[in-house]
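Re: that backbone. Tokens:
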């Protein structure tokens, strides 16, 4: 699960950075505000890569997905991109757990076979 989720978060890191560049064109927003918000979101992406397997890591990832979709109020394209990344996040968590369960099952089977052979 960690690899899939981290890949999604790194993709989001770049999308947030590019959305920050687009948001800079809005005359109502100051550069400091845009980069403070974008920078915090980008930092969260990187930090969450290491926190995925810890308690609350997945929930923080969902909070980031909600914030990404909500950023569509500033950069309208982010409604679509946020929804795409939320779907990718769901798939990463869902299928990542299935992969982890399969790995654990195969490891247990291999251990049982090794114990029977000995």
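Recovered sequence:
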């Amino acid at each position: 699960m960690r690899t899939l989720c981290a890949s999604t978060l790194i993709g989001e890191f770049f999308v947030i950075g590019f959305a920050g560049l687009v948001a800079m064109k809005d005359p109502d927003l100051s550069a400091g505000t845009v980069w403070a918000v974008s920078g915090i979101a980008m930092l969260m992406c990187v930090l969450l890569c290491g926190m995925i397997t810890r308690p609350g890591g997945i929930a923080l990832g969902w909070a980031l997905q909600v914030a990404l979709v909500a950023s569509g109020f500033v950069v309208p394209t982010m409604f679509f991109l946020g929804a795409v990344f939320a779907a990718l996040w769901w798939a990463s968590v869902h299928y990542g757990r299935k992969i982890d369960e399969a790995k654990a099952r195969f490891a247990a089977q291999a251990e049982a076979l090794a114990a029977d052979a000995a």
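The two ends are 33 Å apart (CA to CA). Residues 52 and 58 are 6 Å apart (CA to CA).
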